[in-house]
Amino acid sequence: MSAGSLAGSGLCPELVEALEGRLGIKKLLPIQQKTFAALGGGRNRHFDLRICSPTGSGKTLAYALPVLQEAYRCQRAQLQCIAILPTRDLAMQVHSVFSSLVDASRTPSVSVGLCCGLASLEEERAQFQPSRSRGHRGQLSCSAPEVGVEEGGVSILVATPGRLKSHLERRHLRLSHLKFLVLDEMDRLLQQSYHDCIPFLLEEFEASRRLKERNESRGMEGTSGRTPGEEAEASNPFFLQPKYKCPAPRLVRLSVSATIGGDSNKTAKIQEEFVRTVSGFDASAGRLPTDKYELPENLAEFRVVCAKERKPYTLLDLLKRVEKQRAVCFTNSTEASHLVTALIRKTKSVDWTCEAYNSRRTPVERLEALRRFKRGEVDLLVASDALSRGIDMPAVKLVINYDAPSSTKNYVHRVGRTARVGEKGTAITILGGKDDVGAFKKLLRKLGPSHTFPSLLPQKP
Ligand SMILES: Nc1ncnc2c1ncn2[C@@H]1O[C@H](COP(=O)(O)OP(=O)(O)OP(=O)(O)O)[C@@H](O)[C@H]1O
Questions:
Q1: Is 55 touching ligand 1 by the criterion CB < 6 Å?
Q2: Which residues constitute the domain of residue 214?
């Protein structure tokens, strides 16, 4: 059996079938193997976990697989996992990863919901309503329902912070069975103004757990025997045995990012307990990459230097020089993204088709732009940093930084849209004058002594 093969991975048959059949995945990537092992296939919930690994290394499935395996094991229509993503586009992307696996596995007790503001609060709330007609093999909880809170409904909820908070404030969600809280792009979630959602969620979870314990001690909950899920587990060799029996559900926080920082003041907000790290970073395996980031292995980096005011011409010249391919061009603002798009479209001698992708466009327009890009109808997406984090575009070959990135993290996430999952990719940064060159040199120092400053783009690459 080869390393990482699905057959020897400990994954349940539903997931193996879904991965192979729906996603065409034949083996697990290193960060996926490590995370699955650390979490004992979703059963080991004795510590919180930070999942740190370079862009495009497969972190989404790294957390999705143990979460789903645990949901299949339990076979209960209860909310077991909330995954929080900083933007709507990312939430939709992660929702579609979970959904494609769940749809392919045809396990009616497990379902996935999405709350990111695409629909009204009431429409989103409908996902949390019990759906007894689904004929799930598990059972709805015997515990007394909390006032205003629905039982049943989705097992995995993917949400943006603001929207999740709105549902929590209205008590639309029952949290007492929650096992996993995923904070994807954790460092960005903590940066944004709405990060107060996370302490709020943790407080709600605690309150809900206390209520459940009170109810149990008053004899209101009558589950003494094994659940159907536990019965199935006892005879199922695919589920790993836990080292210790877990008492009441413990909330495991899974923090995920290619650039998790070591700022303990910020991470304190997440209230991690006995935190461990699984790392896909070679040099710092087992430790947090606090001030050191890593780029994808097969990334070729170049720079082009020009006078500030000549940047538009330099970009056009670049597009004429390099072979037309699927590419993303980053700007530092939505205005610049629109201006650059208009410029390329107007320039007859440049035959790249392009679209603007930024926060000024509606979510539907952005989704459509992404779809057209993925279908190959658009060669170049001109994006503000709305696209720099997490968006998965497997076939991107080239990233152009029209505006120099503002930080090391920003550079890592931008260029990480290419050279994903072992593919080759190129990043070209346009530097407008000495100041840009100096600032860029400074921010790249954080990539460590082994990183060499990108060379000048050859005349004929
Ligand atoms: N085991 C696997 N085998 C082959 N491809 C995989 C595997 N797991 C994931 N992928 C693919 O790898 C790509 C990148 O995965 P993903 O988006 O999870 O990366 P990431 O590490 O979260 O990146 P980022 O840090 O940029 O968000 C996706 O297209 C995904 O389908």
A1: yes
A2: 4-280
